[in-house]
């Protein structure tokens, strides 16, 4: 709806020269120059019936005529377009309302006939964005508008700009499909013989040029054909929406010469005045011209707040340096004027230049006009080197002063005029961000880890941190640091932090220590992790596969550079850690500089990694060559792989010395914020993972006291069951059920009740449950287990067979049948075959290998059982039931020592296995 609503209103261009202007809308007919449109006879089809945009260029003035008509098809559109808005700049022109009409059943209702007027909203509409643009906005809630009506609005905005003498400029965007309108056009007109140039950019259409009643007109019917899709990495000029431009400037030199007097600094620094004193102080403190220029730039950046002041002709006209210094605020024009005055007072060669911050590479293709630019900065030449100094930026220092903003071109404002100049990129002299992080994995790679991190930021990135120090509340600082660390490292808990700002280097440092979940991933029993490194993010694979894309250059991000230093403290493992990927990189690909040095030694991994993106673009031929180099270079990912026998969370759990730093970290979090419930949850998870079940239960007791919930009751029920407190575990499972009756809560009860001699209750509870197809199958197989426990082994098997008959060959049900027959020792004939079929169809998954091992155990095929259990544990070392059964099998094979060791280790991890397997007649002792 927003898009449709926007077609009913127009916006005044911030451009033109002195004229009589009004602070109230004028209600009058359209000028005679307007080629008035009539509504199409057929009003069905697209809801936008009329989209008419006409401009008249006269000496010193631009008139913009807007005529819109839209059909109100539904209540949403009624809300979106029922309030009209039109903006204008009262110090530069007028808003002239011609028509507000409602067309209903073929008749036109004149909304203005009864004296209805617009209300005026004044200048402060964008104050929250630090903008006073001088604009007024006229608004009107259209009375009597209904769904089914056609609403039509016509008005003209006149614009003259005090800064441009008698020159005029006009830019009109040209909508392309899928935009739809029954009748649409853009038309620009000027008196015959007037020195007006026009240009169409980005559109493959031939405008109609006509001469009538003393006017020359260029007209384009809309919408234009849908634009060809462009690569996302194409320069902006290839992706820019089509525009029709017209103006009276004959060259960039004329634009330059007309605007240059606005930035004359002669006489603006009063001898002995405030600015003069600042200049003297800088000259006394610094010897070299460059050091003085940086000091002046930093003064303007730091001491002058940003506020766009577009009032009283100020869209192009800067306020004086004295006014800027007195008010201590100003926009880019004001900051540039102040900086220029100071630099020139110091004898430094400097001039203002206008730039386009987002569309710089488009400027050379545009018609010469000030509207091509949106920003002004200072160009200084010191010892033969060009410097581009932006007073609205931040972080000025000797380390970053040579950096060139990604504006592509600039137009110097010189009294004699100047052509566009290239802002050529050059290598950065400092990193935008230097990151140092130490990850402490010594407790084990499958546990949370402690980290210490320090980020040093330079240039504009340092500005926000300087603003926080000494001004933000403790709560605001903590929120910022938490978000900063999460953005850089992922979710974590901050233990301590510090923000520092170095006034000498103008850099900011964020220092944080904390605890975070393990980033290690497990695959087939082995752990590995990747690292977020500057080089790892490098990718150069521009898509130029389409014929129309072959000659499109590739835009390179930047300028931006980053350096990361990583240290990983590793567990004292028997095996060796391995690095996969390039340990050393020193390459320049597609103008991006990539460097890395990594190595493993003395239980530590160290990585020093950097990437520098220079910005700019590559020609199509260069891009093709660099893409080939990038393919040969391959991936810059770096992976650290742990040995297969790496120290695990459950190894030597009775000796908690290696867990002490993590335990202390969680305790610190709780002491610092005892009301934060998540801290207790995290410590409970950590304690449970390291087999401190009693400690975990204590933490969950606190969580339940603070905020009882079904999930936490189920967590505590599971832990209570492991420590043998079955009655308490059942009570928690029932409490969870009462809070939130769920399948999980039902299973939790059904898993405990049989051990208390209440198998029938468990069966009855599960028979009451519903769920989706998967949940119903799980319920059925669980009931079959309970039926076998109750002595009805054949009945339980028949239940599984019934499901399998409806899902023949289903690996899940084949595994359920294999497991059931093996554990309950039912129908040994064909057991090996059905278990093997389950393994093959389940792609040799560890749980299914465990089931077949149970089958081989029942059949006395111990060697086959051991082979399957070894394979299952190799792929999934956490599979404690498999470890238990391997102990049983080894014991049966005569290797009692190894068997007992496996059984003890399995029961340490999961004590409930003893009673679980005992129900099948498999005893731990």
UniProtKB/TrEMBL annotation:
<dbReference type="InterPro" id="IPR019734">
    <property type="entry name" value="TPR_rpt"/>
</dbReference>
<dbReference type="InterPro" id="IPR050498">
    <property type="entry name" value="Ycf3"/>
</dbReference>
<dbReference type="InterPro" id="IPR038765">
    <property type="entry name" value="Papain-like_cys_pep_sf"/>
</dbReference>
<dbReference type="InterPro" id="IPR024618">
    <property type="entry name" value="DUF3857"/>
</dbReference>
<protein>
    <submittedName>
        <fullName>Tetratricopeptide repeat protein</fullName>
    </submittedName>
</protein>
<feature type="domain" description="DUF3857">
    <location>
        <begin position="60"/>
        <end position="218"/>
    </location>
</feature>
<dbReference type="InterPro" id="IPR011990">
    <property type="entry name" value="TPR-like_helical_dom_sf"/>
</dbReference>
<dbReference type="Pfam" id="PF12969">
    <property type="entry name" value="DUF3857"/>
</dbReference>
<keyword id="KW-0802">TPR repeat</keyword>
<keyword id="KW-0677">Repeat</keyword>
């Amino acid at each position: 709806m927003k898009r449709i609503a926007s077609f009913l209103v127009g916006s005044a261009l911030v451009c033109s020269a002195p004229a009589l202007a009004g602070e109230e809308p004028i209600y009058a007919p359209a000028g005679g120059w307007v080629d008035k449109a009539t509504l199409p006879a057929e009003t069905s089809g697209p809801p936008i019936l009329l989209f008419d945009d006409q401009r008249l260029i006269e000496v010193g003035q631009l008139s913009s005529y807007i005529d819109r008509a839209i059909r109100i098809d539904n209540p949403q559109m009624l809300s979106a377009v029922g309030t009209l808005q039109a903006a204008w700049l009262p110090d530069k022109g007028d808003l002239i309302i011609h028509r507000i009409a409602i067309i209903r059943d073929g008749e036109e209702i004149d909304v203005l006939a009864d004296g209805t007027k617009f209300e005026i909203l004044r200048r402060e509409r964008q104050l929250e964005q630090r903008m006073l643009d001088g604009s007024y906005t006229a608004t009107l809630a259209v009375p009597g508008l209904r769904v089914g009506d056609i609403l039509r609005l016509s008005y003209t905005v006149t614009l003259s700009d005090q800064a441009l003498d008698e020159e005029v400029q006009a830019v009109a965007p040209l909508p392309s499909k899928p935009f739809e309108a029954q009748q649409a056009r853009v038309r620009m007109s000027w008196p015959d013989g007037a020195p007006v140039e026009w240009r169409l950019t980005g559109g493959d259409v031939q405008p109609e040029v006509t001469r009538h009643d003393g006017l020359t007109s260029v007209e384009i019917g809309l919408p234009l054909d849908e634009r060809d899709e462009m690569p996302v990495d194409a320069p902006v000029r290839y992706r820019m929406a089509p525009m029709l431009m017209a103006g009276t400037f004959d060259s960039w030199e004329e634009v330059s010469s007309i605007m240059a007097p606005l930035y004359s600094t002669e006489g603006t620094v009063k001898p002995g005045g405030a600015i003069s004193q600042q200049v003297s102080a800088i000259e006394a403190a610094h010897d070299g011209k460059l050091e003085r220029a940086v000091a002046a730039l930093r003064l303007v950046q730091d001491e002058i707040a940003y506020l766009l002041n577009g009032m009283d002709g100020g869209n192009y006209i800067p306020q004086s340096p004295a006014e800027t210094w007195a008010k201590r605020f100003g926009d880019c024009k004001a900051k540039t004027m102040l900086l220029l005055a100071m630099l020139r007072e110091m004898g430094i060669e400097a001039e203002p230049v206008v730039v386009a911050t987002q569309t710089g590479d488009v400027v050379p293709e545009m018609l010469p006009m000030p509207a091509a630019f949106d920003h002004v900065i200072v160009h200084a030449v010191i010892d033969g080197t060009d410097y581009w100094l932006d007073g609205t930026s931040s972080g000025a220092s000797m380390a970053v002063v040579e950096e060139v903003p990604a504006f592509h071109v600039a137009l110097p404002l010189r009294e004699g005029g100047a052509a566009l100049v290239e802002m050529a990129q050059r290598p950065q002299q400092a990193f935008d961000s230097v990151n140092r992080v130490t990850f402490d994995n010594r407790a084990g790679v499958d546990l949370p880890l402690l980290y210490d991190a320090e980020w040093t930021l330079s240039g504009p990135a340092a500005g926000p941190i300087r603003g926080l120090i000494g001004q933000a509340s403790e709560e605001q600082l903590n929120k910022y640091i938490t978000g900063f660390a999460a953005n850089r490292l992922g979710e974590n808990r901050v233990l301590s932090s510090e923000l520092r700002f170095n006034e000498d280097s103008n850099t900011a440092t964020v220092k944080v220590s904390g605890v975070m979940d393990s980033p290690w991933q497990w695959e087939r029993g082995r752990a590995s992790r990747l690292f977020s490194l500057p080089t790892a993010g490098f990718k150069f694979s521009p898509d130029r596969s389409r014929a129309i894309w072959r000659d499109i250059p590739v835009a390179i991000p930047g300028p931006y550079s980053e350096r990361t230093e990583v240290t990983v403290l590793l567990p004292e493992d028997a095996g060796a850690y391995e690095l996969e990927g390039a340990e050393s990189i020193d390459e320049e690909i597609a103008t991006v500089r990539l460097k890395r040095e990594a190595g493993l030694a003395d239980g530590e991994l160290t990585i020093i990694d950097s990437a520098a993106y220079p910005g700019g673009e590559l020609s199509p031929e260069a891009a093709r060559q660099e893409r080939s180099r990038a393919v040969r270079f391959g991936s810059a990912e770096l992976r650290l792989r742990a040995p297969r026998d790496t120290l695990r969370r459950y190894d030597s759990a009775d000796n908690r010395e290696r867990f002490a730093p993590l335990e202390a970290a969680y305790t610190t979090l709780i002491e610092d914020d005892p009301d934060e419930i998540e801290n207790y949850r995290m410590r409970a998870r950590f304690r449970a993972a390291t087999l401190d079940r009693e400690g975990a239960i204590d933490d969950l007791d606190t969580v339940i006291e603070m905020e009882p919930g079904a999930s936490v009751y189920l967590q505590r029920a599971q832990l209570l069951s492991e420590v043998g407190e079955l009655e308490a575990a059942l009570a928690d499972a029932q409490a969870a059920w009462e809070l939130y009756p769920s399948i999980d809560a039902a299973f939790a009860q059904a898993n405990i009740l049989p051990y208390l001699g209440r198998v029938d209750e468990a069966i009855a509870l599960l028979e009451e449950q519903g769920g989706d197809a998967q949940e119903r199958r799980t319920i059925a197989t669980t009931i079959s287990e309970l039926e076998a426990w109750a002595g009805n082994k054949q009945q339980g098997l028949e239940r599984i067979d019934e499901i399998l008959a409806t899902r023949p060959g289903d690996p899940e049900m084949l595994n359920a049948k294999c497991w059931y027959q093996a554990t309950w020792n039912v129908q040994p004939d064909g057991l090996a075959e059905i278990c093997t079929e389950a393994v093959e169809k389940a792609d040799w998954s560890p749980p299914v290998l465990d089931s077949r091992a149970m089958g081989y155990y029942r059949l006395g095929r111990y060697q086959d059982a051991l082979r399957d259990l070894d394979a299952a544990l190799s792929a999934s070392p956490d599979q404690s039931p498999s470890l238990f059964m391997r102990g049983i099998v080894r014991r049966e094979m005569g290797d009692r020592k190894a068997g007992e060791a496996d059984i003890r280790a399995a029961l340490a991890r999961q004590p409930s296995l003893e009673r679980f397997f005992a129900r099948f007649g498999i005893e731990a002792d």
